[in-house]
Amino acid sequence: MNLMPSEATGQSKWDLETDIVVGGTGAGGLTSAIVAHDSGLRVIVLEKSSVVGGGAAVSDGEVWIPRSHVAEREGIKDNDENIEEYLDYLSSSYPVDKSVRKRWIEAGRIAANYLDEKAGIKWIIVRGLSDVFAGVIPSASYEGRYLEVKPIAGEELGAWKDKILRSPQVPYFVTNEEMFRFGGASTLKDWPQDLIQTRIKNDVLCQGSGLVAYLLKAVAIDRKIPVYLEAPIKKILMKDGRVAGIKTEVSGEAKSIRCRFGVVLNIGGYDWHPVYPYFFEQVPEWHSVMPPSIEGDFITLAQDTGASVIPYRIYSAMPGFHIPGEEWFGKDLYRQLTFEGGLPHSLVVNKSGRRFADESYFQDLGIKGALHDKTLGYVNYPFYIILDQQYLDNYPFGSIEPGTPLPEGLAVKAQSLKELAEGLRIDSHTLIATVERFNEFARKGVDEDFGRGSKAWANQYTGDLRHKPNPNLGPIEKQPFYGIRLHFAGIGHNGGYWIDSDGRVLNMAGNPILGLYACGNCVAFTELGPTYQDGACLSRSIAFGYVAAEHIAKNLAKSQD
Ligand SMILES: Cc1cc2nc3c(=O)[nH]c(=O)nc-3n(C[C@H](O)[C@H](O)[C@H](O)COP(=O)(O)OP(=O)(O)OC[C@H]3O[C@@H](n4cnc5c(N)ncnc54)[C@H](O)[C@@H]3O)c2cc1C
Predict the structure, then answer these.
(1) Do residues 111 and 511 lie in contact, with contact meaning Cβ atoms separated by under 8 Å?
(2) Ligand 1 pocket, 305 CB below 6 A?
């Protein structure tokens, strides 16, 4: 308990005092807490949800850190010129902030090494996974730029074990490396079932849930940093132009916390806000694949501090779907269309019955699905995925296992393509012609229209590696046929705080707000540009979580020693 007579904050009495408050328990927030604590600072972590991990825990846990200490240790050759060239390619001529980009890559490496040496995070290389544009440009790498964690047993988390969000979206009981070795996400029924059952029985965590487990162990158990759940930051209090404290509610009870040196926000994007997604995404509908506690609080908190919130284009609205009956946190669960579009015997058409993108690279579907023409409106929306019976016999669709009938209300089912088109209310001649042309490509193994299956990344990530001649192409020919309406279901990060290379949040004049730092999806992707590279989200979150804590320790805290 600490009394601080301050009229400026309107706060004369604080319930708690600390050096740093970290908001949000994504990978960046937890990293910040570890580094700040190790620098001798007192830290309190506040998480809005009843569980820890946010989008990080939902994810595949692939962390894209080129030339990491693990890659170097394992003798994987890479060089900074290639990395720079690859990053330029990803920016697709957008005006990226190169100072922030440089810091991201450098700090990502330092942070990964730090977490390994000081916080017990057991990293491995995701063997078998290439950069998204491997084979497209020479500077992309076929292997070695992604890190993930080794499996960790839930019981290592003690009382925190049940507080980690388990991903409903990915098979979090195997590593990505194992998953690719076993044949990819689509071949789950052929994986070694003994291993899978043992892992599930022992509550072994991998991928994003595993990453969060390691970080949470380092925070809450090893360092005993207080982590409050159901404790959203509701307000940031300023005094003399700098952050002085925050207001929260811990399980519904209002509390004020004085923060001597600052606040690090890792509170996600605008995903579940009822309105913001439409401002940033400009799509006709929006659903999020992120946890429902991510509601755009970073924007409402900006009014307390004068923080700038800027638009910045990045892949964001993805094709997705909702399986009737699937819920989480009392809300409909939406799944991103990933392998479903890239597996053989599926294709995606627009409202005219035409293909419009490379389905094996779901970002292409998202970007082109959202195309808007001032006269014609959304030219490719609504869109539909078409499957034949071979698909359903062999592959999963979301959580629906191969060989299982689709639940009522998900799909239009028909014995002919003509009947299917009529059921979907699209032109049957066009749909039939589209399928015939696609089937020719599938038999040859080359998609001459959109290059589906031409990327090594897509072969591994969304294809069936056993399928010949191309892991991503198989004809649509076996009745019955199915058509499923897709929706935009994404990650809300088409804009966010404007930060500098020290992770400091800037105001609209471009000046840092003293004591306010941010990382993750609440920060605009000014360092990357609009092109997708998977693993970049976690990597930048961790990198700037690290940078923020380091900057506070070396600057703000030191100046008050
Ligand atoms: C299926 C799937 C797979 C993915 N795979 C990958 C991958 O392999 N690699 C990759 O880089 N990215 C991946 N992503 C994207 C990635 O998960 C996110 O972009 C990433 O986690 C960034 O999140 P973040 O750092 O912004 O914070 P998050 O991890 O989303 O955490 C934010 C936290 O803040 C909390 N919060 C919100 N408001 C408040 C408040 N007011 N006060 C306190 N707490 C608050 C939330 O409850 C949440 O726990 C994937 C996404 C999905 C859906």
Answers:
(1) no
(2) no
Is the C-beta atom of 296 inside 6 A of ligand 1?
no
Report the CATH number that the domain containing residue 450 is assigned in CATH: 3.90.700.10
Please state the rounded mean pLDDT for residues 501-509.
97
Test site for ligand 1: of 521, 522, 523, most ligand atoms within 8 A of the Cβ: 521
CA 519 / ligand 1 centre spacing (Å): 11
CA of 422 to the centre of ligand 1 (A): 40
| Cα-trace Rg, the chain | 24
CB atoms within 10 A of CB 138: 11
Listed residues 446, 462, 490: the one ending a domain: 490
What is the rounded distance in angstroms from the CA atom of residue 217 to the CA atom of residue 182?
A: 29
Cα 335 to ligand 1 centroid, rounded to whole Å: 15
Instruction: Let me know whether 485 and 508 are in one domain.
Output: no
CA of 516 to the centre of ligand 1 (A): 19
Task: Express each pLDDT in 142-183 by its tens digit.
Answer: 999 999 999 999 999 999 999 999 999 999 999 999 999 998
pLDDT for the residue numbered 531: 85
* Ligand 1 atom at minimal distance to the Cα of residue 267: 34
- Closest by CA to 7, choosing from 198, 204, 238, 220, is 238
Are residues 504 and 302 in contact, defined by beta-carbon separation less than 8 angstroms?
A: no
The neighbour count for residue 39, using CB atoms within 10 Å, is: 17
Structural domain span for residue 382: 319-490
Asked, for residue 281, whether it belongs to a domain, the answer is no
Q: Is 42 helix (H, G, I), strand (E, B) or coil?
A: coil
Q: Is 101 a member of any domain?
A: yes
Whether residue 148 has its Cβ less than 6 Å from ligand 1: no
Same domain, 189 and 177: yes
Cis peptide, bond prior to residue 469, ω within 30 of zero: yes
For residues 516-544, average pLDDT: 95
d(CA 334, CA 290): 9
Do the Cβ atoms of 518 and 544 come closer than 8 Å? yes
Q: Is residue 246 part of a domain?
A: no
User: In CATH, what number is assigned to the domain containing residue 98?
Assistant: 3.50.50.60
Ligand 1 mean position to 26 CA, how many Å?
6
Q: What is the mean pLDDT of the chain?
A: 95
Total domains, the chain: 2
